[in-house]
Amino acid sequence: MPDPITVDVRGMTCDHCEQTVAAALEKAGLDVAEVDWHRGQAMGTPRGSFSEEAAAAARAEHGYTLAGVHTETSTPPATVTDDVDFDLVVIGSGSAAFAAAIKARDLGASVALVEKGTVGGTCVNIGCVPSKTLLRPAELYWHAGHHPFPGLDIATKGADFASLVAQKDELVEALRRSKYEDLLEAYDVELIRGEGRFTGPDTVEVDGRRVRAHRYLIATGASPWIPPIPGLEETGYLTSTSALELTEVPESLIVVGANAIGLELGQLFLHLGSKVTWVEALPRIAPFEEPEISGVLAGYLHDQGAGVLTDATVTAAGRDGDDVWLDVEIDGETLRVTADKLLMATGRRANTQGLGLDVAGVEIDRRGHVVTDAGLRTSNPRIYAAGDVTTHPQFVYVAALGGNIAAENALRDAGREIDFETMPRVTFTSPQIASVGLTENQAVEAGHAAMTSTLPLEAVPRALANREATGVIKLVADEATGRLLGAHILAEGAGEVIQAAVMAIKYRATTDEIADTYHPYLTMAEGLKLAAQGFRKDIEKLSCCAA
């Protein structure tokens, strides 16, 4: 009897879709046991007439897409032979690497991680965990001295930054141990210490040791990228890594780059008392967000006492005694900016130098990032890549999902693909920026007749109650269908609220369906409902909770 199979189907949005897909698959030769539109899968047993081509054609008639066919017993993991040491060798030990290792061990494969430095990668050691751990006390300190409630007298005695950094280091060490190092033994994964590089299309060398595997995964992450600026190296500067190692708050700070990392770290020191000036080469800060968000945030940072220079080109750097300076060209005129410290937050580049990717036959782009297909396979069919080393968005949850997918595809040829349609992003400023889906311009470029609803945070009752009404919510929808295409939020708690929009986009909800769904009163999540109502009503003329 044939093995049961699982068919991945894209485009299902409701119970009726399940019935349609089931009928199409039955016609194609599959005895269907179950169809689940939430998971995008159908399960059943193939008859002799079944084929992927027939299934794809049958579903295409109804507008659905075949994304893959796999079985629990198909393509079992390779077993170690005399000339192969492991089923999977991963170069790197961050989130993508560990997600891949755990998935591979779940599939019964043998795994080794190759690591030349600290186990755990960027997020736990020098990225998400340490930065957010410091952002929170800095935010509390600022709001204690700048709260909006008359009659509330709160005294602040100062911030001991060295103590905050020490607490940050303790948390980083604890999480690195419990979430990474301890898992090596728990999953029986071998850690090979040293610098790994490919010596051919199917061989890795680690400090002179030859290691061979059936499949390889590149998960070496990325590092801060610094543009070539005359005088910069002699001047000295901080990166996103070294800034988190300071033990004293600088009196003044220049931040070059006003995307997520630059905004977060700049506001960290702003909240602790630094005089901060952002220098951004693009026309606005948060340059990849909706312009409404960039504009409101820029005004808020100015009100907090910061300087914001945009459309600014840094032409030279230098030092004058204890101060650093930058010459910045704006509209043809040169302005000199000085401060105690300089933070370069100008992006990150993949760690691919020295990996021997040329001899391995692995394609990289002009910036050094590994190029993969949607299944995370590189131009060498035995080598996969995941995480920040690829061209994918540099978020830890993208890296972890990529590692999981890459391992299953590498070991079982599962046909899984990574999809960014519902990938959210959060910038942990105060207020936070959170977005998912298409911006207005992206929607138009994709061929949609886009319509938008923009809601100032003053229209959200929770924001008024909190006296935190700086922000905006912008929804982008398809005018023909009403389907939500994108949600973009600047608000306290935006990172929590955005998940509701993620689910709405994932399951093809319309703005009317969002507006007609319960949203608790006096929550920030109610802002999504109000913004959705804004497509058809004047929000200023609604009573509280009015439908």
Largest sheet: 5 strands, parallel
Poorly predicted segments: 73-80
Name of the CATH architecture of the largest domain: 3-Layer(bba) Sandwich
What is the beta-strand fraction? 25-35%
Q: In what order do the strands lie side by side in the largest sheet?
A: 7-6-5-11-21
Kindly summarize this structure in a few lines.
The protein has 547 residues and is an alpha/beta fold. The protein contains 16 helices and 26 strands.
Kindly describe this structure:
This protein is α/β, with parallel strands linked by helices and 547 residues long. The protein folds into four domains: 5-70, Alpha-Beta Plaits, CATH 3.30.70.100; 86-223 and 350-412, FAD/NAD(P)-binding domain (3-Layer(bba) Sandwich), CATH 3.50.50; 232-346, FAD/NAD(P)-binding domain, CATH 3.50.50; 424-539, FAD/NAD-linked reductase, C-terminal dimerisation domain (Enolase-like, domain 1), CATH 3.30.390. Helices cover 32% and strands 25% of the residues. The chain has 16 helices and 26 strands. The strands form seven sheets. It has a five-stranded parallel beta sheet with strand order 7-6-5-11-21, with helices on one face. It has a five-stranded antiparallel beta sheet with strand order 22-23-26-25-24, with helices on both faces. Helix 9 (291-303) links the parallel strand 14 and strand 15. Helix 3 runs parallel beside helix 11. It is globular. The N and C termini lie far apart (56 Å).
